[in-house]
Prior knowledge:
45% helix, Rossmann fold
Amino acid sequence: MGMLEEIKASGEGWAQAVEAGSACAWPWEGTLFLGSGSSYYLARIAAWLARTQGHQAQALPSGEALLHPQVAAGARHLVGISRSGQTTELLRAVQALRLPAFLLTTRDPGERAGFVQRVVLDRAREEAIVQTRSFTSALVFFLTAFLGKGATAGLPRRFAEAEGKLWEAALSWPRAKRYFVLGTGPAWGLAQEVALKLKETALVQVEAFHTLEFRHGPMSMVDEEAAVFLLLPMEDGGLERAVGQEMATLGAKVVEVAYRLPEMPLALVPFQFLAYQLAKERGLDPERPRNLTYAVQL
């Protein structure tokens, strides 16, 4: 199954993730969330969700915890995120930290990996190298685990209803020489994932920033050749919107992408479509992203 087909099949993984998230009884207090690449951005969102529920939690790249285990001081247990279940940095970090470890994956690495419990979202398992439905399914899992099944149960249906419009949005978004993706709160991690998708699939110049930090230097790159995607919470977003308005006065093409927290995966899907489409427009094969493999193993 190719990248486009994987995206379109996301609803299957989301439905499984809703059930798995609602049944999850993992301890969250004192959690260290670990992941690499896209999984690290998931870890950042999960840690943010945990903190909003009153838990102490942090997120780190798996490689940081492996190389500098002292930064995990105070953590009671860890939650590892790995699509393949084989990411070397994560597996070695689990061994080095010697904490009770839980794993969210699409492929069970087996007992020898050292995890106390594993949640395997096998209906989100991908053949494509670029992560799409595995990421959004894992995001649905964490949203359900922290916000409750009532908040996310309708997501698979919403995706089926909105798929065509999400594709149309991706086709209509501006093309540019430079792209910037801005977000705050959980959307900061989402912005980083968007930037990674565009970069690894279409080889475009793209960077992600915390929205309010963008004024502190990076905005010097903004001109008529830039496109700025602004991830905005529907409930508020006034300060963030002002940043977008300022970038528009500098000549940037600004696109506001509004989201509700329980429906964040729906905000990500059009960017996945965009990454695929940009690759095609640039004469690249999204099924064979340059220099990348399915799982990073050292």
